[in-house]
Amino acid sequence: MRLEPPVPVSREEYVLNVRDIEPLLQGYPMDTKPWPDATIKLRTGKTMYIRAARIDEAKTLMSYVRQVMDVEHDFYDIVGARVYAEILGWYRKRIKDPYLMVGMIDGKLAGLVNGRLMNEDINISLHTMTFERGGRLGAALFYCKAYYAFEILGQKEFWSTYESYNGWRIGFLGMAAPSYPWPDVQHELGGARVYYITRKYWDQAVKKYSEELVGDALNFDVPDEIVKANQELVLPDDVTV
Ligand SMILES: CC(C)(COP(=O)(O)OP(=O)(O)OC[C@H]1O[C@@H](n2cnc3c(N)ncnc32)[C@H](O)[C@@H]1OP(=O)(O)O)[C@@H](O)C(=O)NCCC(=O)NCCS
Question: What CATH number corresponds to the domain at position 88?
Fold first, then answer.
């Protein structure tokens, strides 16, 4: 767009350096606490270790999620495609204050969970994906995400929405989460309904419900050998969901 200047000017052109444009496109990150390493015992008897993903692991994660995008059942394709874009957004710094945790079982990636911070008060839940079925890993990872919002970051609300019946059953039905009027309030994922959990409701019921659903509470006293053994992000051999 061009308009004539309303005043005579001594300089007609200014050169822009992309480094001056970048802060406008990227924004400035909030100063947030990272997810602390944790473990949780699953109903299968196995232990899942949940740690924050590192930015240098983004491409490795994307390579796996790209394969998951080909799975046509249980909404893995759409969730995979969205997660792929969110990880790329994190890698290319085009998503505001994202967080991403990986769940590792027996030294291999077993699931992931991500979201972003709208502001200091509201946590936007983006996605949960499990690559091993049947052990309620997804419920455990979703519990981590809400725990992060309320217990680590001290936020006031956790906003989620669901593409799949399995996700909806855990996060909406199981948690009896209220929703904001729709379509007046829309989640950034496709303009769907916003289900929300307040801090009060988390303290009253959701935290306990999550622990009962998964069968254990989070343990933050993680032995060094577990941390060390899971530093490298080892992918599952195949997609078997
Ligand atoms: C939603 C999701 C994270 C839930 O993961 P989860 O808690 O580990 O649960 P599963 O999907 O493995 O299983 C759900 C239920 O169906 C059963 N089930 C479904 N498919 C199964 C399969 N292929 N093998 C074993 N069990 C299966 C499980 O036993 C479980 O029942 P239970 O809760 O009574 O134990 C996971 O299904 C997933 O990643 N789905 C694709 C992505 C997605 O939809 N993400 C959420 C976006 S809304």
Answer: 3.40.630.30
